[in-house]
Amino acid sequence: MPGVFVLGSGFSRAISTAMPTVQDLAVPLRQVLLDTGRQDLLGLATDTEALLGFLSIPQPFLPEEDNLANRALFVRISKVLATLLFESQEKALRERMPDWLRRLVRKWDSDKVALITLNYDLLIERAVNASQPYDGATGFPMEMNPSLYSVPIQRHTSHPKFSRDRAKNPGLLLAKLHGSLNWYYPGTTPFWGHPVIDVGLEPKDSSKEDWEGQMWRPLDERDLARVNEARQGLVPLIVPPIPIKSDRFDNEIMRAVWMFARRALEGAERLWVIGYSLPESDMSVRALLTTGTAGKRIGIVDPDASVVDRFKRSMPTAVFQAGDYVSSVRDFVEAYVGGAS
């Protein structure tokens, strides 16, 4: 595999300032705690990942009724997060798609790269769909979703359907380790055996006259009505940055997504990390990257240069070269699309 890319919230933020970083989510989550009378958790509210991890895992020092209450609060916060991220995504889709993003996803698709993303939003999926050339036989672009995903995701019956079988036209593959805004599941425990359903958070009506404009836009009222019907009785699949022992990893679909990521890392010629700061609380991703990058050359794209030292400390067997740090996503795209690696 020629290249593997790990994408964090900083990548989505580079696409649009409407997209929040993990730190931006602290304020609305603090309000949820206040609204639910959980002032005892305010000390964790400044660390979104730590809060979600605490709520999602039964704690050995708590009685069963308190662990169940935490589980209920986790589901509630997952829905709040899904709503906030969806609203931010819709704002981003009201803006023009950046030219650098269009060029980047075309290059990624041409190079058949693996994208390992920690983001829940669908900006990559939308950009890939919007950036494809037309299929002369049908008048529509190649099908890019849902077979864009590294593991097949069951589609709801109302999901938009495109015209071409992507199996005949392989390209980039996207592994969403923390779930996705369009992935839903029944929400009960245990998580093992549950289906993961793509409810189709993308425009359904499209035509060849303005394909990019229709793929890169907010959902209209008909789209929203269709999606709301599709996700009735389901819970958004939001997998927080939590320890490996969590039941979030018991599901066969999510385990397959993570196993794909591991294989991609093992087969990569090199790795680029864009907009991901390797937080201490994200132990599962830290373990994945640390154990899967021995001898691999790693490049970092992040406005904070101190992130490089954090990766070096966590991955002592990886290779970091002087020219492999780029502070700007746009500067990286200019070099990567222009032929440099």
In short:
By secondary structure, this protein is of the alpha/beta class. Helices cover 40% and strands 13% of the residues.
Give an overview in words.
- It is a single chain.
- The chain is an alpha/beta fold.
- It folds into two domains: 4-20 and 97-337, no CATH class; 23-93, no CATH class.
- The chain contains twelve helices and twelve strands.
- It has helices at residues 9-15, 26-35, 48-56, 64-94, 99-111, 123-130, 211-215, 221-230, 252-267, 283-292, 306-314, 329-337; strands at residues 4-7, 114-117, 134-135, 140-141, 154-155, 173-176, 179-185, 197-198, 235-238, 270-274, 297-301, 325-326.
- The strands form three sheets. The chain has a six-stranded parallel beta sheet. A four-stranded mixed beta sheet has the order 5-8-7-9, covered by helices on one side. A two-stranded antiparallel ribbon has the order 3-4.
